[in-house]
């Protein structure tokens, strides 16, 4: 069956990227956070060796990329080194709020230079007040400070803008800003707020069914999910509506279950919300 997984990835039936939730805790408490992450919440973290093992097994199964998210991954000690190990196995993208890159953490990022990895940083508006209202005080200033430092180190930076709506003028200002910071147009992702996690508690965001979401195998401390939008948290409990399997090792178990679920799925259904 593992041959079938590799063939499905090669044929585009199964998305090639496997996501890893490194942790759930965060130094921010964004208004639309999928996982209700914040300072002081339960970490429920994967160890560095476990994350690397997921990447190894993903490569063995025929997957072609890794995504790392949280929480805030860089709260975990040695995350730069862990990402370097993962990027040596498969091309990697790591999501981060970009607010922790100073001192020793910034210096450690030198390990990522020259490797096939991108850091995707969240920035929701060119107006500091608008951005910080959703993400936290001084977030805009910290991100603007961090991005040039990463670019100077030879680290690819992607920018993710998560918004309910954006006017053309505001979008143009944000694009001008990311170009000024050294982020290319193709590395700017604009996506909607999804009505899950903290966004659901606040009654904001678009409602998404399973068929609206990319079927990207997602591994967490709690199990394997249909999508990185799957292991959301509400009222302190992890949602299970998109749970595939509690078993994540070997990775072939949830990979095969996901393949069975996506076979025969109409092409293009995972792009309806533009959340790739």
Q: What does this molecule look like?
A:
The chain has 276 residues and is α/β, with parallel strands linked by helices. The protein has a single domain (2-263), classed as TIM Barrel, CATH 3.20.20.70. Helix content is 32%, strand content 17%. The protein is built from nine helices and eleven strands. The protein has helices at residues 2-10, 48-61, 79-87, 103-108, 128-135, 139-152, 168-180, 198-201, 252-262; strands at residues 17-21, 65-69, 92-96, 117-122, 156-163, 188-192, 218-220, 223-225, 233-234, 237-238, 243-245. A nine-stranded mixed β-sheet has the order 6-5-4-3-2-1-7-8-11. A hairpin with a 2-residue loop joins strand 7 (218-220) and strand 8. The longest helix has 14 residues, at 48-61. The protein is globular and about 50 Å long. It starts with a helix and ends in a 14-residue tail after the last helix. The model has no long low-confidence stretch (mean pLDDT 92).
């Amino acid at each position: 069956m593992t041959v079938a997984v590799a063939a499905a990835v090669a044929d585009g039936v199964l998305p090639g990227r496997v996501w890893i939730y490194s942790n759930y805790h965060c130094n921010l408490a964004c208004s639309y956070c999928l996982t209700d992450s914040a300072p002081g919440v339960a970490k429920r973290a994967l160890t560095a060796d476990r994350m690397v093992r997921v990447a190894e097994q993903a490569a063995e199964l025929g997957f072609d990329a890794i995504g790392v998210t949280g929480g805030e991954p860089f709260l975990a000690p040695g995350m730069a080194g862990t990402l370097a190990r993962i990027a040596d196995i498969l091309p990697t993208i790591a999501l981060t709020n970009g607010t922790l890159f100073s001192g020793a953490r910034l210096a450690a990022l030198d390990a990522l230079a020259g490797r096939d990895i991108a850091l995707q940083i969240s920035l929701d508006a060119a107006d500091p007040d608008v951005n910080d209202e959703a993400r936290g005080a001084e977030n805009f200033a910290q991100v603007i400070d961090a991005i040039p430092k990463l670019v100077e180190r030879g680290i690819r930076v992607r920018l993710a803008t998560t918004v309910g709506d954006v006017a053309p003028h505001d979008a143009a200002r944000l694009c001008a800003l990311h170009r000024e910071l050294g982020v290319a147009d193709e590395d700017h992702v604009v996506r909607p707020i999804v009505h899950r996690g903290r966004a659901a508690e606040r009654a904001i965001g678009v409602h998404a069914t399973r068929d609206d979401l990319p079927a990207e195998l997602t591994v967490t401390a709690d199990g394997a999910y249909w999508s990185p939008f799957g292991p959301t948290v509400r009222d302190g409990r992890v949602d299970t509506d998109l749970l595939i399997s509690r078993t994540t090792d070997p990775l072939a178990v949830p990979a095969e279950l996901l393949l069975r679920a996506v076979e025969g799925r109409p092409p293009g259904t995972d792009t309806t919300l533009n959340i790739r």
